[in-house]
Amino acid sequence: MDYHLDMYFQQEWIDTRLRHNGTGPVLIRDKKVFGLMWHPDVYFANARHASFQDITDDNFLVWVYPDGKIWYDCRISLIVICMMDLWKYPLDSQTCEMRILSYAYPESQLHLRWSERIQPPIDRNMDIRMPDMQLIDIRTGSCNGTYSTGTWSCMTAVFLVEREMMHHVMQTYFPTALIVVISWFNFWLDIDSAPARVSLSITTLLTISTQANAVKMALPEVSYMKAIDVWMGSCMAFVFGVMIEFTICHFAKNQEMHRSDPAPNLIVDTTLTTLFGGEANMEELSRQVDIERQRMNHSNSIESKLRIPSELNNDVPSYFVGSDRLSQKRSKKQSVSKLRDQVTRRALSWTRTLRNLRGRAIANKIDEKSRFVFPMTFVLFNCIYWSFYIVFN
Length: 393
What we know:
Blueprint: E1 2-14, E2 26-28, H1 31-36, E3 42-44, E4 47-52, E5 60-64, E6 69-81, E7 93-102, E8 133-142, E9 145-147, E10 150-152, E11 154-163, H2 166-183, H3 194-217, H4 227-257, H5 264-275, H6 279-305, H7 323-391
Helix pairs in contact: 2-3, 2-4, 3-4, 4-7, 5-7, 6-7
């Protein structure tokens, strides 16, 4: 990352060769004259770009005092590299360093140090403020280093800046938190409103994904996780959890509905047992049905033996012995069969209805618990998140 500086760079040194008998300092404004004078060849080691201001004229001046002291003042614009640590972004504060060295003269020939006469040696204009960062402090120091060519004098200026958080709270944190809250509306929608619940979940998930991508595009790619990544990832996980919760509810409801139906005989026996007052009465009913079935078979065998020919008595009509009783038995048999069919159909219908109600009850129970679990978990996450990144760090 880079930061921009627009500064008045002032240097002071003594050259006894330039002593004069004037009553005051001599002003030099010609760059050619200044070029003929000896002056420190300082440069900014970690500057990406530097330039002198020359509008409307060259912004520099040189004062030569009678005792040979030289005062050099110029206006410079710099773009300086700052090795930022973004793991707490956007809740971070940064330390940016500017290094000033001599290019040709080692420390034995040129020693650089901050002015002790002017305190603080670095001052700033309090009326100039940055929109997204706040300058907390400026510290000065030295960074003399030994290289293969010798020891070189070095000065450092360290800028302590803190990022303004309110912008990110309003533009990132609050909208994403609101999207998470909106996703909880799923818990109050009916379990059968699958299109509405799925649409709401997908819409909130896509919205958070879009915001996360927009935040990443504004930052350099780093190999570690930033605070904003933790927030976005957690919000995305909460919204995705709402989709998982709906899937579980829908599965629980359908799983109960799709269970295999019990055997019809079991349903009929259970239902008839209930209708006829217990297992003893049911056994008696079954025994009577078996006896009637045997009598019907016996009557069929007698029927063929006791036929009375009609030619023996023209006045007597043809009939079968026991035919009325046989019709009654057949009518009873048909009634019992119809009863069993009706009971079977109704029992299956009741069973499916009960399963539907049981499945809906399970799904509604999950929704009711989620209405409490999801908000409380999100509040707990916020407490941990803000405490870790602001209080403890």
